[in-house]
Structure formats: C-alpha cells, structure tokens
C-alpha cells in the first residue's frame, strides 16, 4: 500500500484559539475556539483517509502492512502513538495522566459499571497510559511538576493569608514529599477544599506582591493572577504556587510522564503521546474533577520540568527521544541554499509514520509512490512503504515508533 492523506479530528474545547489552528490548517475560522487537531487512530477521535474510512479501520484491515510485524506484535495491532497540534488561548485544566496499570484497572471497573465511553462520569476512556511530549511551535507557557518543599515554602511565605500560612506551615514542619502531598491534598480534597473567598485572598496577595516588586517569583505570581481571571475561586489557582513555571521557546520540548501534575497555559505546540485520552483533572476546568483519583496517581516528588534536547540525525533532521517505547518525534527542515529543491533526501525513520507539514511545500516519496505535503497537511506512511524521501522547500514533523 502507499501513503494516505489524513484529515485530522478537530476539537473545539473552550480554551482553544479562534485563529491559531485555522491559520495553521489553512482554513477559514468560524469564530469558535479551535483547541487541537488529532492525527492518529485512537478510536474516540481517529483521523480519516480520502475514501472516508477511519485510520483505525485501515490499520485493522492490514496490521502487518500498516504497522509492520514488530510494532503490531508489541502493541496488539494498534498504532501506539497519537500526534496533535494544540493551541491553548486560555489555560487548560490542572491534570495528571495515569500509569498503564491504573488506567487498565479504572477502565475495567467503569466498563463493568456500564458507563458509556463518552459519559462525563468516566475517569478512564481507554486502558492505556498517556505519557506525552510537547514541542513548542510558538512561545509556550505551562506549569509542570512540584517544586522542592523548601522552595515552595519561600514562595508562600509573607503572602499573609490564612490559606497560604497553613500551606507554609505544612511545608516548613515537614519539608518532604509527604509535606507536599499534605499541602496539595489541602487544596483539592473535597473535605478540605478552600472557599472561593480564601482563593481570592491569595490571588490579591500575589497581585499586590508582584506590584510591589518584592516577589521571590514574579512569574508564578503572574500565573496565579492569570489563572484566576479564567477560573476565579478555583483552588487549582493556589496550587500553582507549589509548581514549576515553564516557558518553552520554539523548538524546545518538554516530556510529561505519568503522574506529573501539569497545566498548559498559552501557545501553540506539537504533542506526541501514547494513544490514550485518559486525563485526571484536579481543577481549573468546568469538566469532572476527581481529586481522589488524582491523589492516587500524582507524583509529589520534587522534580524540574523534563526538557528534552533534540539530537541531530542528519544535516536536515533532528529527533526528540522520550523515555518510552510508544513514540518519538523528528523535525526535518528542507530550507536554505544547501538543500536541493528537486533532489530527494532520505528521511530517517521506519515503521508506521505520520508526517505533518509545518511550513512550505514539499513532496514525500517512497518506493510505493509520491505525495505532496504543505503546511497543515498530514500523511500516514505505512511500515510496508519502507524508506521515506523528501524534496522541496519547507519543514515537517514525523511521529514514529522507536
């Protein structure tokens, strides 16, 4: 078989941008938020191919040809990754992703209870884990992972509210992961969840501290104020004081393992992840919040954001390797006078690949055929197609299996 054009599945979540994704995809915006577009074979939102079939059905009809024997055997004849373009204009929920074991257990329990896959009461929509990696296409801001207890105590000190004094005391008395878990539990557990008034007092204290120029972290005080604008009274706003602020410049990447508490705030980026839609929310969302599930899965061990440095594969390609078997991501740039526009260059990689144009116009070739590629367009390259070559002027991303 040969390469197949993909029509990605678009999601209109309220936090999306009305302009970023339409411009990227070369489509007319409709005034609604376009949050993310999925290029993959997850059964809840698969991409489609030109004859109208779903990509997951295409793979099921010929797993050996589409996935290859090794990938098919390792991942039960399913495409193990999902590629997205994400464009948050407003902050996403404060969330964690479960381990594979926790997801399988929860998925089985909810199936046995008769909950429909699209039920808002569900916690798990599949039985898979969801580690993910984000590569920034524009300046991208986020929160990810807990600070050390002592550093979080410094951030909380002096804000002078009852809630921050209580959190500060927990971390000073027990500057360990146990103390951090107690502080986080204070914010999200239903019996202890602070009132909207208490949250508002913290926000005003952060705003005043930032305005006074005496903040130990002006960036986190700014994040608290921004989060409160979109989610007033939500305790997740205060949880930001316990977390690491992150800013990624274009081309920089961050890996988010299972259990890492995070929230994407603003920007546009490529996400590649295990093929899952399992999200456990702790706050900053109108959707279901499940503090008990979050507390079971979250890692409160202090850790800096896990930035992934790209490795040079060829003069035109770099790769971002995450510590998982489900996916990897590469970027290829066919620009500059040293790159011949009409001479095909070999693109590293093998197996089932999804190639997404980022800018320019190019042509992809395999022994099975050729396919044009422009910004915003995606192509599925079956494993049976073998070596991929490209020529033209532009830049593209390639998701594949390690």
From TrEMBL:
It is an enzyme of class 5 (isomerase). Residues 4-147 form the Phosphomannose isomerase type I catalytic domain. The keyword Protein biosynthesis does not apply. CDD domains: cupin_PMI_type_I_N. Pfam families: PMI_typeI_cat. Its EC number is 5.3.1.8. Keywords: Isomerase, Metal-binding, Zinc. PANTHER family: MANNOSE-6-PHOSPHATE ISOMERASE. This is mannose-6-phosphate isomerase.
């Amino acid at each position: 078989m040969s390469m197949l054009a993909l029509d990605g599945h678009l999601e209109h979540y309220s936090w999306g941008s009305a302009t970023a994704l339409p411009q990227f995809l070369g489509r007319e915006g409709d005034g609604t938020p376009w949050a993310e577009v999925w290029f993959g074979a997850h059964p809840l939102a698969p991409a489609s191919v030109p004859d109208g079939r779903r990509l997951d059905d295409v793979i099921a009809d010929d797993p050996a040809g589409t996935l290859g024997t090794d990938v098919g055997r390792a991942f039960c004849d399913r495409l193990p990754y999902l590629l997205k373009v994400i464009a948050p204009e407003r902050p996403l929920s404060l969330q964690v992703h479960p381990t594979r074991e926790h997801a399988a257990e929860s998925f089985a329990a909810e199936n046995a209870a008769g909950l429909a896959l699209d039920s808002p009461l569900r916690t798990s929509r599949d039985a898979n884990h969801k580690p993910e990696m984000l590569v920034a296409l524009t300046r991208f801001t986020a929160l990810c992972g807990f600070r050390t207890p002592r550093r979080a105590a410094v951030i909380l000190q002096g804000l002078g509210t009852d809630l921050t004094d209580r959190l500060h005391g927990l971390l000073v008395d027990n500057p360990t992961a146990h103390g951090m878990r107690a502080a986080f539990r204070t914010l999200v557990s239903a019996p202890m969840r602070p009132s909207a008034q208490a949250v508002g007092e913290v926000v005003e204290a952060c705003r005043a501290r930032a305005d006074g120029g005496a903040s130990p972290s002006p960036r986190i005080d700014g994040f608290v104020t921004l989060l409160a604008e979109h989610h007033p009274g939500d305790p997740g706003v205060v949880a930001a004081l316990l977390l690491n602020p992150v800013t990624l410049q274009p081309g920089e990447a961050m890996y988010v393992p299972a259990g890492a508490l995070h929230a994407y705030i603003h920007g546009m980026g490529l996400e590649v992840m295990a093929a899952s839609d399992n999200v456990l929310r702790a706050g900053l969302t109108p959707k279901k919040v499940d503090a008990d599930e979050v507390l079971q899965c979250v890692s409160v061990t202090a850790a800096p954001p896990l930035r992934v440095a790209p490795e040079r594969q060829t003069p035109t390609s770099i790769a971002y390797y995450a510590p998982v078997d489900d996916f990897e991501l590469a970027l290829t740039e066919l620009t500059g006078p040293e790159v011949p526009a009409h001479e095909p260059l070999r693109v590293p990689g093998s197996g089932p690949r999804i190639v997404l144009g980022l800018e320019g116009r190019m042509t992809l070739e395999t022994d099975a055929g050729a396919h044009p590629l422009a910004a915003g367009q995606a192509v599925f390259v079956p494993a049976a197609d073998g070596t991929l070559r490209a020529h033209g002027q532009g830049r593209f991303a390639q998701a594949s299996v390690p």
